[in-house]
Design brief:
The complex is a heterodimer of chains A (about 375) and B (about 375). Chain A is mainly alpha-helical and about 375 residues long. Chain A has eleven helices and seven strands. The relative contact order of chain A is 0.12. Chain B is of the alpha/beta class and about 375 residues long. The chains are: A mainly alpha (about 375), B alpha/beta (about 375).
Chain lengths: ~375, ~375
């Protein structure tokens, strides 16, 4: 009786397990060698012509001022980078929120039964999606912000509480304590909303009466904010024009405004297509079942179709958010001091180019990773769990 | 899948090997002494940019095309201007032909990167010579070809008569220039509140200024004069305020670490100034060369002159042909002619850019 012996191993050079590890190691070593060679080549050449290759430039005085902030030109470059990062996050955060809102509305509008709404939404999406963002930004800045907004000598001041001019847009803002305290107040109010909503829902479970969790929560939120506002001594400061400046309130620079509008308009057109596609991907039976249960059109959309559509839409939406964050770097051409602008100016003032820009790149990578992590959390929350 | 990994590994190996070949050899060997060649001129030291330019046959000159008077494009697409002529002068000296200069347009923010990476051989782009640029930008600055200062331009109907009147204003500047830092420093020195807005290009600044987004436009006085002359609403719509608030010596620059090349470019600029001092012009250079008996001019133009041992030609050992000064003046002109050709029509006075005998700052070292 013979037994097939299958326990002897093949020779090393034919053993699949060894070979696969070996190839991976070789490829990794090659890539590492190429990267090391690039870095050392850069270092040698830079040393030959006397350019520093370390990060000491962060301690040098900046030699430029940043409009819209108290940054002094003798402050170190690292402070300028911090301001650039904050400016990027400001335009990215507000841009993502506004683009989502506009994009969802336009996406639903494309499926509307109203012919005018449908046509308008289609034209908007089809035109804007096919334009490069830089072109839109140039148009918004040069055509809209510079020409349509009035000059500072005769600004438009609706209601005397806002100021519109091509030097900036002034909106009423809080004055008193710092912004951090206000954010904490906002968080406390949000926690109050959540707590009251939970309580109302448990009451509804027990007694069967309608919960009205939203209404109670909103009331709690407003009450907390108002009480906190009065107790902490906040005031409202309104903007006014003094000479050629806007004093008081919060002043939005025209470049910030232009960048925000361009980013929102552009990204919303892409988000609209994503939302439309995901709504159409929800099985049509869902909508029909909702109608059979006597739900109105907006109830059908809000309670049945959209939640299922969001599940499909979230990964591509995350992609659009990352694009928006990276596209914010175009503000560098229009005097908006976001991160790319700061890196360019410090490099033109004598900081070594590769360390300065690798710092900017590193930050964009970190911000993008954080955003995609948040989107993944939302994705996991919405996705269908297969048991 | 295994085959794919093997293929990828091979491709990477090949890429890593071949990309080692276009590594630019920056030179520390450029400091070696030049050797004498048979025709009387010296050869450039091996490894110097001078030898590379002579081998290549063209000079890559970093410049711009949007500043009237200094460097603009004419109808035929040729670069015309003060800085463009100095590019041509260097080409005429090193290569014998002014048309061998290749004008490479650069943005303000990229000009030093282009010089550091070897994309251009010399930067003649109205760039200010500062200590930080000498030390940290890998650039060596040479004889300034224009001594300038920074000023402020405002609309004629704005009512400003001096920079001290301007409080709480916005000032437009070009990004990545000494202008930004100087404007901020001047504001804090005067105790005023200026919002300094940097833009990428001059036409963007012009649009923003015309739309009223900034009250003042700050730049070098020569740039302001040039830009005012082409302002769409007419030069009278703008007024340049009298204050000059910084020194801006505009000088050509070369890469660090190449002494031979730096000396060559330096002496070409100095030769144009020396030619004006001797009274040699484009019109009379042939006559001067053939008939002069002035020993200094003979040495300068590379003419044979008699010494105790017979006749000889001055060969200072710079690596240039002995008649480089003749070629420069013949093909381009002397400093005064270049100035009058491009900058006088804009209304710029010689001022400090005159010869030392006339009270200016131009004092070329003796060519001997």
């Amino acid at each position: 009786m013979t037994s097939a012996s299958s326990t002897s191993r093949p020779p090393v050079w034919r053993d699949v397990r060894v070979l696969s590890w070996a190839f991976q190691l070789v490829v990794f070593a090659l890539i590492a060698l190429v990267v090391m060679w690039l870095v050392s080549n850069y270092r040698t050449n830079a040393a030959d012509i006397g350019i520093p290759t370390n990060f000491d430039f962060l301690d040098n005085p900046a030699n430029f001022s940043i409009p819209g902030s108290d940054f002094n030109q003798s402050q170190p470059v690292r402070d300028a980078f911090v301001i650039g990062i904050l400016n990027t996050m400001r335009v990215a955060a507000l841009g993502i929120v506004l683009a989502t809102v506009l994009g969802v509305l336009v996406g639903i509008g494309r499926l509307s039964r109203n012919w005018v709404v449908r046509r308008l939404a289609t034209v908007y999406v089809e035109v804007v999606r096919n334009l490069p963002l830089l072109v839109i930004l140039v148009f918004v800045f040069l055509g809209v912000v510079l020409q349509v907004l009035p000059r500072i000598e005769n600004p438009w001041t609706p209601g005397d509480v806002t100021v519109f001019s091509n030097r900036g847009i002034g909106v009423p803002w809080f004055a008193g304590n710092t912004g951090t305290v206000l954010i904490l107040l906002g968080l406390a109010a949000a926690a109050g909303w959540w707590g009251v909503a939970r309580w109302r829902r448990s009451v509804a479970d027990r007694t069967g009466h309608p919960a009205h969790a939203g209404t109670y929560g909103a009331l709690m939120f407003t009450a907390t904010v108002v009480v906190g506002w009065i107790v902490l001594g906040y005031e409202v400061s309104t903007p006014a024009v003094a000479g050629r400046q806007i004093v008081g309130g919060m002043r939005l620079q025209p470049s910030y405004f232009a960048l925000l509008i361009a980013l929102v308009v552009y990204t919303a057109s892409h988000i609209a297509e994503i939302v439309r596609g995901s709504i159409q991907a929800v099985p049509i039976g869902q909508g029909e079942a909702a109608s059979a249960l006597a739900l109105g059109a907006s109830q059908r959309m809000w309670f049945v179709v959209l939640p299922q559509a969001m599940r499909i839409a979230i990964p591509p939406l995350g992609n659009q958010y990352l694009n928006l964050i990276k596209n914010s770097s175009l503000g560098a051409g229009f005097a908006y001091f976001e991160l790319t602008q700061i890196a360019q100016i410090t490099q033109a003032n004598g900081s070594p180019a590769i360390p300065a820009f690798s710092l900017a790149l590193g930050f964009y990578v970190v911000l993008s990773l954080v955003t995609s992590a948040v989107v993944n959390v939302a994705n996991r929350h919405f996705e269908l769990v297969v048991r | 899948m295994k085959r794919l990994t093997l293929l990828l590994a091979l491709v990477l190996a090949v890429a890593a090997c071949t990309s080692g070949d276009d590594d630019e050899t920056t030179t520390t060997a450029g400091d070696a002494a030049p050797t004498t060649a048979a025709d009387g001129g010296t050869q450039a030291p091996a490894g110097s940019l001078l030898a590379e330019v002579q081998d290549r046959g063209t000079l890559r000159c970093g410049t711009r095309s949007d500043l009237p008077g200094f460097a603009v494009l004419d109808d035929a697409g040729e670069h015309v201007g003060f800085d463009s002529d100095f590019c041509r002068a260097i080409a005429a000296a090193v290569l014998g032909d002014a048309a061998a200069a290749e004008h490479v347009d650069l943005e303000t923010a990229d000009r030093f990167t282009a010089l550091q990476s070897g994309q251009v051989d010399v930067l003649v782009r109205n760039t200010t010579w500062t200590a930080t640029r000498d030390g940290s930008e890998g650039a060596t600055f040479l004889q300034p070809n224009f001594y300038d200062g920074q000023g402020m331009m405002v609309a004629a109907d704005s009512g400003f008569a001096s920079t001290e009147d301007m409080d709480g204003v916005a000032v437009c500047v070009a990004k990545g220039t000494t202008t930004e830092g100087n404007a901020a420093a001047e504001a804090s020195r005067l105790g005023l509140d200026w919002e300094v807005l940097p833009f990428d290009s001059t036409d963007l600044i012009q649009q923003a200024f015309a739309a009223g987004q900034c009250d003042g436009w700050s730049s070098d006085m020569s740039q302001l004069t040039a830009l005012r002359s082409v302002y769409p609403d007419g030069a009278d719509a703008l007024v340049i305020l009298p204050e000059v608030f910084s020194k801006e010596p505009l000088a050509p620059a070369v890469r660090d670490g190449d002494t031979a090349w730096a000396q060559v470019v330096d002496w070409v600029i100095l030769a144009t100034i020396q030619a004006e001092e001797f009274g040699i012009t484009q019109a009379n250079v042939d006559e001067m060369r053939d008939t002069t008996t002035d020993l200094n001019i003979q040495r300068f133009l590379g003419v044979e002159f008699t010494t105790d041992d017979g006749t000889t030609v001055l060969e200072p050992g710079l690596g240039l042909p002995t008649d480089f000064a003749y070629q420069v003046v013949k093909q381009v002109g002397n400093y005064g002619e270049i100035f009058e050709r491009h900058l006088t029509p804009l209304g710029l006075e010689r001022g400090v850019n005159s010869l030392w005998q006339d009270g200016g700052l131009l004092y070329p070292p003796p060519y001997r």
